[in-house]
Amino acid sequence: MSGKEDISISVIKRLPRYYRFLQSLKENGIVRISSKELAARMGLTASQIRHDFNCFGGFGQQGYGYNVPELHSKIGEILCVNTEIKTILIGAGNLGKAVTNKIFSKKSGFKLIGIFDKNEALCGNMIKGIPVRNINYLENFCIDNSPICAVTCIPSTDMREITDLLVKVGIKSFWNFSTYDIAMEHPDVLVENVHLTDSLLTLGYLTNTSLNESED
Questions:
Q1: Cβ pair 178, 154 in contact under 8 A
Q2: Assessment of whether the complete model's pTM goes beyond 0.85
């Protein structure tokens, strides 16, 4: 088994996809699957799957394959889905509400404990049973409750001041939905960026390229 520092980010980024596929297999009553069958379903190669799993010790049995519920559970443990990392969300607009309702309604390894916004019209509203607080209460809330992670669903123009404050009060990781480069200013924190516009622009390029090729 490799040390965690030796595992490439590409392997780590495939783990959630394995977890999702295995969840679907489990829900459909499939108890056993080979690396070849799993590869065919996921568009990977059997050797790639075996390599990825071997980074964490390997989970299959020679001549049997993988026990689906057991493998799903083990990958969930690796992804720490049963932990409850204390998390706050900044920005209670449409995106923030969508993220809260979609993501924090299932096991993700993160527990949402606070929601903040500068819009007074939103303050006092309840989202998933959590009150939206004014951003002015953010620093004291963090000091009192020690969140570890922040989800940022606010405009990039507001990000510098907010992230500087969050890092100062102990936030260690960010799920960033803005285009602001947190890592540039704070290289010691963990950042996972979700750039929706970049993703859409990429799709636009691929779509138009495909259409142009079909016309040739």
A1: yes
A2: yes
